[in-house]
């Protein structure tokens, strides 16, 4: 049984930082690209970041470039999202996702497994 469990969300003031973690189990971690998506009220799920197994290639959504950093620890089967300079518009439920293969995917439909999400709220 595949499980992706996010943690680290919470309430933070604008300009602050949070680090999200996603612990994966029930899958062969090296066979998956890992990504983060988010969904805010009234919007579709939005691509945030992704990283391949070797961590030599990463991708970011335009709205978070320069502020967020994705990384993964393959020995721990864990992917992270470091979020700096947070803005109120970053408020959303953040989802960890896993995609079979070696290529980064930018669409939520290309990912095979999803976590339950963790709430991030950024206040002014």
Architecture overview:
With 124 residues, the chain is mostly beta strands. 0% of the residues lie in helices and 51% in strands. The chain has no helices and eleven strands. The chain has strands spanning 3-7, 10-13, 18-25, 32-39, 46-51, 58-60, 68-73, 78-83, 92-100, 113-114, 118-123. Strands 2, 4, 5, 6, 9, 10 and 11 form a seven-stranded mixed beta sheet that branches. It is globular. The mean pLDDT is 96.
Task: Please give a handful of descriptors for the protein shown.
4-stranded antiparallel sheet; mainly beta; 7-stranded mixed sheet
What is this structure, in a nutshell?
By secondary structure, the chain is mainly beta.
What is the distance, rounded to the nearest whole angstrom, between the alpha carbons of the first and last residues? 40 Å
Total strands: the figure is 11
Characterize the biggest β-sheet. 7 strands, mixed
The share of residues in extended strands comes to over 45%
User: What's the gyration radius in Å?
Assistant: 13 Å
User: What general outline do the C-alpha atoms trace?
Assistant: globular
């Amino acid at each position: 049984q595949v499980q992706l469990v996010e943690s680290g969300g919470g309430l933070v003031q604008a300009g602050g930082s949070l680090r999200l973690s996603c612990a994966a189990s029930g899958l062969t971690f090296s066979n998956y690209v890992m990504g983060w998506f988010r969904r805010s009220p009234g919007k579709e799920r939005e691509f945030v970041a992704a990283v391949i197994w070797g961590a030599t290639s990463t991708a970011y959504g335009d709205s978070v470039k320069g502020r967020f950093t994705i990384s993964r620890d393959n020995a721990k089967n864990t992917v992270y999202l470091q979020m700096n300079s947070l803005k109120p518009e970053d408020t959303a439920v953040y989802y960890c996702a896993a995609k079979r293969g070696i290529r980064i995917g930018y669409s939520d439909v290309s990912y095979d497994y999803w976590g339950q999400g963790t709430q991030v709220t950024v206040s002014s």
